[in-house]
Amino acid sequence: MGEGKKPSKKSGSARLFEPITLRGLTVRNRIWLPPMDTYSASACDGKPTPFHYQHYVSRAMGGFGMVVVEATAVAPEGRISPCDLGLWDDAQMDAWRWIVSDAKKTGAALAVQLNHAGRKGSTGCFSLGFQGASVPREFGGWQTVAPSAKAFGEYAVPRELTVDEIHAIVGRFRDAAWRAAQVGFDAVQVHAAHGYLLSQFLDPLVNEREDEYGGSFENRIRIVVEVVDAIRAVIPDDMPVLVRVSATDWAAGGWDLDQTVSLAKVLKKHGVDMIDVSTGGIIADVTVPVKPKYQVPFSEQVRSRADVSTTAVGLITKPKQAEKVLKSGAADVVEIGRAALRDPYWPLRAADKLGVPVEEAPYQPQYVRGAFR
To answer: Which portions of the chain are predicted below pLDDT 50?
Structure first.
């Protein structure tokens, strides 16, 4: 007898597998892959490689609703490391198309996280060495920039940006977003978290400027708002824009939850559809109380106080744990990060654990015979 599809004995529904609509995009479920750097643009040209195809398409096949591609630099000097991905040049677009096209054929949606690393740029990675340190110029490093000439930990001291240079960086985000739309990405995420350039502007412990981009809350958020406005002006109206934020830098006198909520309210008015809520990464040598779901309360507060859709991330590893986050109202979407590095098919395992019938789970037709039952 052939291995035909057996009737499923399971029944029931799970919040994780309900679709969600942002503007003109409907995503098949609420299990998303967050952006996680792989530092694998081996030619140091910002172009994705067959590794990236395998990495992202396999997780799209594994059932993730939205796959958010890792930090992708809007300028060469905006890379975190020389091996970061980029969309700063039209010549990089073709290298992206096969990944985006084939991942979307699985039913997943694709977003790209656009980033400028600022003072945390020009750092090492596994293939180059210099991990946890700045890369010397003779090994491909560069002069970093920041709102103020303050170094991150032991990294090289950055150069303070001029106002004209700030305006140029806003234009870089705009141009990269336009390229993303042309390539076929479904959504754009702006990286304003984890101590990279945009979050450096937000944080009063890092930003010591005395012009229109420093000082008051309104001035410190100015570049983020300008980036969002610039992106909205060049992408389709029905294309969602997400912003990733660090809800706190875990340091007294720094960026905190109340400021995050205020920022989220402003961004919603400027056309941002979802806030990806993370924490930390801004101030060096800060103790972060890492434990399962440690960032979920921040997502819940931003969602309820700013009346905006949010994602939750941070050591969420088990299906029932993730389901509880959604059912409690703490977030609209759960992001599965490190667990997805171990298991590209995490959503399919989750469907089995939560009693979702095989025919309702995001299996590729070729793999149904091997479904969890």
So the answer is: 1-9
